[in-house]
């Protein structure tokens, strides 16, 4: 993991390097993704089953594609009861946090007959994509599904790739049941996204697709946007730690590695005002990496996207953190709350040495589906807001419209829209 003074050229190189990881940079995959989407759009179930056989080596048909209640019951028997209990505790924390985000319809009225308001309506149907195989994350099931349930979504269809025997990872099924998924399908990849977006004989179309996936899934979500809504185009995982001389180097090293182990494109960055801490953290990283199970992935991640940057002061460190706009930002300083007030761009902010990033991944309650690749400058974490739509309410009485109707006519004519003007004028033509 390289150590460098935080200078303008270094910062520019890092920002440019991190952007290379964006799914928007992988145009070479787009043709293949578009072919899959078109095939599923035209041939529906037949194409979906064919791609499942080709990519997942599983024979799935119209009678086996949907997970049965018996399969879910079997999953509970396969999972350690203590893990089930942890899933339930985590689900409750996530539910309690997201309930506070819930929005309600509102109306304002005035004595002259004006009523203005906003009607909040949950989406009717949402598709949740869940990775399979080694990338199976029950925690992501909870994070994507529970806000939808809190919002009031009635139909939540989950798709996840099966193994070669047509089975779904038991932990994923348990999490889906605990979160409240209404239907689960054995389908993965771009073909599953196409099925959710356009519908097949077995999978009914949804209104929005959420959830993480590989580059094919990310590009497929991008391609179907417009036919349905999506949450975001997720990039590789990333963490940035802001630390001063008071930070524990073992904690910092462990937290950086918690994201580096995700995949070879993951980014782990430390910005510190302490040169001594920088070298201590580097030594701890070497010691941890030597004994961790995902050593090869960690080493490649740190080689390509790992940095330890020494800032002249905390102000410079904060400016850089805001420019990077990391998915996860940990603040390990003497006064983390004071530093937090200066942070403008971050997906999730973790304060203090006992608030490590995995706390947010699994248990605390805030959503772990976060903006990546600098998009925290304009995107927010997944929330209840992602599962609702809002309608404006407008009601005027004649008494309310009469004093202003000439203004509206004048505005419409200024835009050359005489039919707009006439729509208002006809209501007062007897008075003319």
Automatic annotation (TrEMBL):
Entries under Gene3D superfamilies matching the protein: 1.20.5.1300, Nitrogenase molybdenum iron protein domain (3.40.50.1980)
Record bears the keyword Lipoprotein: no
Binding site for substrate: 237, 259, 262, 328, 361, 415, 420
Ligand binding (Zn(2+)): 259, 262, 361, 420
SUPFAM superfamilies per UniProt: ALDH-like
GO BP terms in the entry: L-histidine biosynthetic process
Name used for this protein in its record: Histidinol dehydrogenase
Native source species: Anaerocolumna chitinilytica
């Amino acid at each position: 993991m390289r150590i460098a003074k935080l200078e303008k050229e270094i910062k520019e190189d890092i920002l440019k390097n991190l952007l290379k990881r964006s799914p928007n940079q992988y145009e070479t995959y787009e043709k293949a993704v578009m072919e899959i989407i078109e095939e599923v759009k035209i041939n529906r179930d037949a194409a979906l089953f064919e791609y499942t056989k080709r990519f997942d080596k599983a024979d799935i048909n119209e009678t086996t594609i949907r997970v049965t209640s018996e399969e879910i019951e079997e999953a509970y028997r396969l999972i350690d009861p203590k893990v089930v209990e942890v899933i339930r505790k985590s689900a409750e924390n996530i539910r309690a946090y997201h309930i506070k985000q819930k929005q309600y319809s509102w109306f304002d009225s005035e004595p002259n007959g004006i009523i203005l308001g906003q009607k909040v309506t949950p989406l009717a149907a949402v598709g949740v994509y869940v990775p399979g195989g080694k990338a199976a994350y029950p925690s992501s099931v909870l994070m994507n599904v529970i806000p939808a349930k809190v919002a009031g979504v009635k139909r939540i269809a989950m798709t996840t790739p099966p193994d070669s025997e047509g089975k779904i990872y038991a932990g994923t099924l348990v999490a889906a049941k605990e979160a409240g998924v209404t239907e689960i399908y054995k389908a993965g990849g771009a073909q599953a996204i196409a099925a959710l977006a356009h519908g097949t004989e077995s999978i009914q179309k949804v209104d929005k697709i959420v959830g993480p996936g590989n580059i094919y899934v990310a590009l497929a979500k991008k391609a179907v946007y417009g036919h349905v809504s999506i949450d975001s185009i997720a990039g590789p995982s990333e963490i940035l730690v802001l630390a001063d001389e008071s930070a524990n180097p073992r904690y910092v090293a462990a937290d950086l590695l918690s994201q580096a182990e995700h995949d070879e494109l993951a980014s782990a960055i430390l910005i510190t005002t302490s040169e001594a801490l920088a070298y201590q953290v580097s030594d701890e990283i070497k010691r941890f990496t030597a004994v961790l199970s995902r050593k090869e992935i960690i080493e490649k991640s740190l080689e390509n996207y790992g940095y330890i940057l020494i800032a002249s002061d905390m102000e410079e460190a904060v400016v850089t953190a805001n420019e990077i706009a990391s998915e996860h930002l940990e603040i390990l300083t003497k006064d983390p709350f004071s530093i937090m007030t200066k942070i403008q761009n971050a997906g999730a902010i973790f304060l203090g040495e006992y608030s490590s990033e995995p706390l947010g991944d699994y248990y605390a309650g805030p959503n772990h589906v976060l903006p990546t690749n600098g998009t925290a400058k304009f995107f927010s974490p997944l929330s209840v807001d992602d599962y609702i739509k809002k309608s404006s309410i407008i009601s005027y009485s004649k008494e309310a419209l009469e004093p202003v109707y000439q203004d509206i006519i004048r505005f419409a004519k200024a835009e050359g829209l005489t039919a707009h003007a006439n729509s208002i004028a006809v209501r007062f033509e007897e008075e003319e």
